[in-house]
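User: quick one, fold this
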Amino acid sequence: MSSYRRPPTLTTSFYAGQPPLNRLSFQRGQVERINEHLQAKDARFILFKWVVNSSSQLINRDFKPLVKKDQPGELLFLNRQDVSSLIADGFVAR
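Assistant:
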């Protein structure tokens, strides 16, 4: 039996922060900076499907992103105004 191991195949993960998506994971500890990004006019947001019951308990989180109604393969990017009720005033430090 050979000890040769095939090198892993390199792939680009869309959810790892490659354009057009940048999760800003390197800035998560900087609340002020994250809030600046949230307020930016060119900020875009991707919402994911969560299902809650009438008691607001999470019953299903399949993390499927919302897509355009006419184009099911295209992500739906929302602007700040579209998500303002979900974001409120931004993040606060814990």
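User: anything notable?
Assistant: The CA atoms of residues 1 and 7 lie 17 Å apart.
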